[in-house]
Amino acid sequence: MSVAGLKRAARESVSGLPREFWWLWTSTLVNRLGAFVATFMTLYLTLERGYSASFVGLVVALHGLGGVVSSLVAGVLTDRLGRRPTLMAAQVSTAFSVALLGFMEHPAAIAAVALLVGVTSNASRPAVQAMMADIVRPEDQVRAFALNYWAINLGFAVSATVAGFVAEYSYLAGFLGEAAMTLACAVLVYVKLPESRPVRTEAEKAAAEPEVGLGTVLRDGRFMGVVGLSFLISLIFMQGSFGLPLAMGEAGFSTADYGLVISVNGLLIVLLQIPVARFVEHRDPQKLLVISALLAGYGFGLTAFGGSVWSLALTVCVWTVAEIINSPTQMALVARLSPLHGRGRYQGMYTLSWAGASLVAPLMAGFALQHFGAAWLWGSTAVLGTVAAAGYWLLMRGLTEEDAEVAAAPASEQPASENPAAAPTAA
Questions:
Q1: pLDDT at 99
Q2: What is the assigned CATH class of domain 19-193?
Q3: Potential cystine with 316: which of 264, 294, 330, 345 (Cβ 3.0-4.6 Å)?
């Protein structure tokens, strides 16, 4: 492709998205540039503090439990208080709790504050995703979610490198640095982002339209099917962080080998997320989700045959492509299925699927490796991928023609009560 062609492709990838989206995107990037706790908490507790592996496992589990709790609570607050105040409160409290964690020394205090960090750091996700669904037109949402996911991974790749050097100097500096970056995000949200929560029209008030509660979400069979499938996919992808390093360690690979292998994941996402998003943007989501589930399951399944660093890196290439396809497509599907005045609760339930998987995935990896061996772990991911693919195929078949037409129609042609691209209200 010529230079002019590359410039045109880049321009098309970012054009047509509202200004508010780019401030939200910037907030995401800054937040991930400051990531430290999630990356280095295990090393901090073992190398710096000298705690046992069992205690570290407890702390990591409590951090994940905090994410499970906050997913639902933050979803409710996003609908009741609004996206902007929920996001600001989450970021300010995250900055405080992360800074506090750096000063904790007693084991009980460390465990308690780690739980608090898990609650606060995950509370912003439903608000961010609901706001993105509010301000981006339906036909642009796959691209918008892909760009946001790209920012997450770009920020994480940079922060992991920089934070590694910071940790050699001072772990406390890393905690305080993340707190400062998160606080900067809160300031950015306050200054640049207006509230985007849709306001009920007079007609909706006159019709006494019922409020959307958590019970409404739980009774939505199609959406809960998406949540269940997201949980299965999350179990697969998280084996890159839990099962893969354990299995490689048992096979005699070094930590440097694992670092080299897993770095392929971040590199490919940074390089391919945007061009792949342009390729899949207007394609059949049913096929994309089925294909991504199969690539994820069997990509990890191929790990059983990886006998070298380079062969393992090739397997990472397979499931990374699945991740690149699945993430924006699935998030756009969640936005499509979420009712206008219940997006926070729906996004909170969707976030719960990932938070729950972060608790189960380490247990799944440890149990399978200890009792059955690595081959069984990778075989189980292939099974999960097959089940998820079948689930997506059946679930998407259930979408009515009306749903498909609404999802595909330009924003101007959609009913006002279903148009998530309505202009944000003033804060």
A1: 93
A2: mainly alpha
A3: 264
